[in-house]
Amino acid sequence: MKMLASCGLSERLFCFVVITVAAVLSGGGKTQAADIVRTIDGDRLTVTVTASSRDGLTVEDRDGAQRSLSVAEIIDVQFDGEPQELRTARNLLTRGRSGDALEELSKIDAAAGLTDLMKADRDFLAAASQAKTALLDASNQEQLRNAGRELLAFATTHPQSFHYYATRELVGDLLAASGDTEKAGEFYEQLAAGPPAMKIRAATGRGRMLLAVGDFAGAVAAFEQAEAIDATDAASLEQKRLAGLGKARGLGGLGKGDEAIAAVNLLLDGADPEDAELLGPAYNTLGDAHRAAGRLQDAVLSYLTVDLVYNTNPSAHAEALAKLAEVWDEIGQPERSREARNTLQSTYPETSWAGAGSS
After folding, report:
1. Global model pTM greater than 0.85
2. Long-range contacts from 236-243, C-beta under 8 angstroms, 24+ separation
3. Which residues are paired to 70 by β-bridges?
4. Which of 5, 114, 192, 325 counts the highest number of beta carbons within 10 A?
5. What number of other Cβ atoms are within 10 A of residue 203's Cβ?
């Protein structure tokens, strides 16, 4: 204000602008937050990420107040000033387009002036994209091994990354796909060292692995263990819902179609109708349960619900299209079967569903 008073009348407007701009730039001594963290409860936090650890992030808000975010509640982070290619790759990987994500990451200039947090995110996205690509063709053992090495190298280079537990889970997925279920189980178990939601995720990882090898009874037991963990935070409840879906799949595999249907319907009754990430897999599981019970028309309706309503989850949509193709054939609708298969091949050519066309 002293500066403004010292200006002549003709200069006061200019001085006022200078003072205003300086105040904005200085932030009045407060942090100018610019990073964006999306959380599991739907929040988009505008903050500054000040530190990363295996268990989460330390962030500072616009007022300079610091808080910790658990890894279990973080969906993703966009860093202030990050290259557009990094942001695009992150979105592509989320949408199941791992090959395109790798291509986008290759465009990032090595001399682009990335911060340490950006470099860690770039390296994780590259390793995770390679792993997701390898999982699309589990018959390629060398590709699975190479992807696992990249993930382990990432964890060595960035030991305090909040992506640490995600790397352990992905290595477990790669080992399970290669047939080494014992070693995969060891990696899934490492998630149990994290917050409660990660403990639940460890059990669901084992359950998924057992489902894949046809041990439906063992899978049901693992998912029930996950559901029984004492935790009620949002991230844990989300993992328990996924465990409930896994249990329903296991019950269907055991030929207990009616029990599987009841389990999915119980989950659907309490679900947010806008939660496509949950409801896409849920209606696929309901379709599987109806097939196990011999109710093919009901199965078609369940898969169509994913195709027409909850189709923003790429993995779930691809699965629904593949199973629609099968069930249309089973009920004597070959034209509709070809239509579903063609849509699958053209929309999700990279997925295992497009390659196999069945589960």
Report:
1. no
2. 236/72, 236/196, 236/197, 236/200, 238/40, 238/197, 238/278, 239/197, 239/200, 239/201, 239/204, 240/200, 241/267, 241/271, 241/278, 242/204, 242/278, 242/281, 243/200, 243/203, 243/204, 243/207
3. 56
4. 325
5. 26
Distance, CA of 124 to CA of 291 (rounded, Å): 39
What's the Cα-to-Cα distance from 57 to each of 37, 68, 75, 252, rounded to whole Å?
Answer: 10, 6, 12, 39
Rounded distance between C-alpha atoms, residue 327 and residue 300, angstroms: 7
- Rounded to whole angstroms, the Cα distance separating 90 from 88 reads 5
For residue 168, the model assigns a pLDDT of 96
In sequence order, what are the beta bridge partners of 66?
Answer: 60
Output b/e per residue, 16-49; b: 16+ Cβ within 10 A: eeeeeeeeeeeeeeebebebebebbeeeebebbb
Q: For 130-188, how does the pLDDT look when each residue is reduced to its tens digit (9 = 90+)?
A: 999 898 877 789 999 999 999 999 999 999 999 999 999 999 999 999 999 999 999 99
CA 313 to centroid of chain Cα atoms = 10
Residue pair 131/174 in contact (Cβ under 8 Å)? The answer is yes
How far apart CA 184 and CA 327 sit, in angstroms, is 33
Gap between the Cα atoms of 306 and 313, Å rounded: 9
Q: Which amino acid is at 193?
A: A
Which pLDDT tens digit goes with each residue over 25-42? 444 444 455 899 999 888
Beta bridge partners of 46: 36
Distance CA 46, CA 317 (A): 32
Cα–Cα distance for residue pair 350/289, rounded to 1 Å? 26
Assigned token pair, 141 = 């053992």
Q: How many CB atoms lie within 10 A of CB 297?
A: 9
Query: How far apart, in whole angstroms, are the C-alpha atoms of residue 234 and residue 232?
Result: 7
